[in-house]
Amino acid sequence: MANPIKEEFLVRALKKFYDLKVQKLEFLGRNDNLAYKINATGKKYLLKLHLGNTTKALISSELKWLLALNNDTELTVQVPIYNSKGELVSVIKNLEHESYYFTLQRWIDGKHIQGQPTEKEIYGLANLMATLHNHSSEWIVPRKFTRPIYDGSNVDNSIKQLKVLLKEKVINAEDYNALLNVSDKLKVVIKEQHINKDTWGIIHSDLHESNYILRDGVAFAIDFSCCGFGFYLFDIAETFLHLSQENQKIFIRYYSERRDLQEDYKIVLESFFLWQIIRNLSFLSKNKDEYGYLEQEIPYVVKKFCSHFLSNKRFLFN
């Protein structure tokens, strides 16, 4: 699908809504949004063109949390910029008069994690996540704050999406049924959790290696577009997908210096680890270009993780 808004329209909109004279507009990629790096009058910005089934309230709520983090903590975040109307979200139309939301945020320089992080870097990641969670546990959510909820329905939606792979013969019935059985067990675990300010709040939900930025040994979190209400352990589970077992233990050691973990966190974290895997597989299944990868990856996941989980055998912290 072609970009719905021509770049020259974006340049004009940035001048109109933010009084920015764009010197360079660099397309970064397409996910749920189109992302651009903007160079204007000696400063750098992140421009997001929001696609799909979204609302102004949903986008504004994400940006309100970023503003709160900027005001209440020492974290450096991609601070949103208000437009000339004093709003966080702007509207642009294409030649077909279709309307799209777009936002502007401060740019953060740095590099993505390459391979396994060093212990110093893991300390930074754990400290960053603990700060996010500490803030979330005390933050008074504003009225009309609208973000997704990560609960059992999220598992259901992921499994429903993965059924497409069965119809397309990317995976076999045995592997799909294994994922289905895992999802049923996950929903039981989710339902058993106690929801309180120590376990549940606003989370990033997508803290994988591409959403961490490192600069001079300091860690930054970017792309809060999937933030929502969920379990803090769900955040940790996503980061765990990209850490070795030894580094997972180091992460927990540093994180627990800032925040207490629930007594059964190991068992719950294993469950949420699989939840994040299923969620990520579901996301990839929307792109047919990923079918070849999924055809190889899903049998591996079933054998290495699902079979252990369904047999009550530990696969993390063992």
Number of helices: 9
Quote the average pLDDT: 94
Structural category: alpha+beta
In helices, the fraction of residues equals 40-55%
Notes on the protein architecture:
- With 318 residues, this protein is α+β, with helices and mostly antiparallel strands.
- 46% of the residues lie in helices and 17% in strands.
Quick overview of this protein structure:
The protein has 318 residues and is of the alpha+beta class. The chain has helices at 7-18, 56-72, 119-138, 152-167, 173-192, 232-240, 245-255, 265-284, 291-310, and strands at 22-30, 33-40, 43-50, 90-93, 99-106, 200-203, 212-215, 218-221, 228-231.
Sequence-ordered SSE layout with sheet pairings:
Elements: H1 7-18, E1 22-30, E2 33-40, E3 43-50, H2 56-72, E4 90-93, E5 99-106, H3 119-138, H4 152-167, H5 173-192, E6 200-203, E7 212-215, E8 218-221, E9 228-231, H6 232-240, H7 245-255, H8 265-284, H9 291-310
Antiparallel strand pairs: 1-2, 2-3, 3-5, 4-5, 6-9, 7-8
Helix pairs in contact: 3-7, 4-5, 4-8, 5-8, 5-9, 6-8, 8-9
